[in-house]
Amino acid sequence: MQIILASAKIMNDKLKTDIKISQSTPSFQQEAECFARDMAQYATETIAEMLNCSQQIAAQNKSRYMRFFEDTFKLPAIFSYNGQAYNHLKADTLHAADLKYAQEKLWIISFMYGLLRPLDAILPYRMEGNIELPSGKGQKMFGFWRSRLTDKLIETIKADDGILIHLATEEYQHLFDWQRVKKEVRIIQPLFYVRKGSDLKMQAVWAKTCRGAMTRFIIENRINNPEELKAFCYEGFIYNEQLGEANYPHFIK
Fold first, then answer.
1. For a tag on the chain, would you pick the N or C end, based on fewer CB atoms within 10 A?
2. Cβ(98)–Cβ(125) under 8 Å?
3. Quick check: is 236 in a domain?
4. Mean pLDDT of the chain
């Protein structure tokens, strides 16, 4: 099985573990460098508008882009992100053997870097899918990446067992030709709901929490059969066999 997990906007500037493990080079390093060069040319005010962020965050990221070709200290992707999912993935407490396993199974989706393996060495950045840059050849990030990432993802899934565990947010599906992905591989998308009386509600924070925790569950337990996902339980979420279907297992709190 291959797994997809979305990247996060908040990024770490230093490593929180002293684990020693070799880093790899992102598959789309050159594309990321071109995007960084484009972004570095814009004024802080323009970057704030493009990223829909504060002036402070824009200034921080302009500085990041300007240093993109100078900084030599890079972090493995799995340690670089600091969003809700990553807080519950807790990568800094994984063993070296877990990280090596994850390197073969997990893809982190990024507007900047396309597709990342966990140990790919990257620099902090901020990017959005609807941004259009000169290097994007007249396309927004969604359009620029679509054919490139679709081929790469399908190729690696088929080289494995033909199964994709979809633990990314739905926004990131637009970076792929998702209809083609669904046609060529089996996609299993776990769904996480909170019960409110007789209603089931999907809450973004809990969904991200469980996606990160399930990613860790798969890595630590070397899960290679979708049926084994049913054993996942976290923060009160457990599998409910009466809801959903095989490709959309439901976990209810």
1. C
2. no
3. no
4. 95
